[in-house]
Amino acid sequence: MNVQSIVNKIEQVYSAALRKPAINMNPILIACSFAKRPGLSVIMSTAKIIERLGKRGIPTEDGRDGTPNKTNILVHAIISEVFRALREDYCIDGSCIPGSISFAGTVNTPAGPVPVRGYNVNAPRITSRGI
């Protein structure tokens, strides 16, 4: 094994491990992506869709023999999977430009409180997963 083959192996490892650069995102957008959505409900969304189907003339009531409506079951299954994907699979991946995140605080020292201010000097990668 020569030096060039070692260099090639190292380059292969790093190129496989490196991720694509993240897109720059507004910090407000990132903060909003972390917030949970109040009232997100599989049952409520299913009920609203079934109500809309009924208004469009699609039968949504149970069968004459009492069997459940297959369309309603299908709608519930689809909505359940969409909400599961939102909870478990979705990901917002981005970064902020340097200087876009600032902070301020106070540090207690023996000489008394000292105000501290700062900002990000690099472009941090921020990932939000699930809701």
Number of separate strands: 4
- State the end-to-end CA separation: 50 Å
What overall geometry do the principal axes of the alpha carbons give? flat
Sheet-strand content, in percent, reads: 15-25%
Mean pLDDT over the residues: 79
Write out the strand line-up for the largest beta sheet, numbering strands in chain order.
1-4
Question: How many separate structural domains?
Answer: 1
* Secondary structure tally, helices: 4
Backbone CA Rg: 26 Å
- Largest sheet geometry: 2 strands, antiparallel
Poorly predicted spans: none
Helix content: 40-55%
Alpha-beta content class: alpha+beta
Order of helices and strands: HHHHEEEE
Descriptive account of the structure:
This protein has 131 residues and is of the alpha+beta class. It has one domain. The protein has four helices and four strands; from the N terminus they run ααααββββ. The chain has a two-stranded antiparallel ribbon with strand order 1-4. Strands 2-3 form a two-stranded antiparallel sheet. The radius of gyration is 26 Å and the shape is flat. The model has no long low-confidence stretch (mean pLDDT 79).
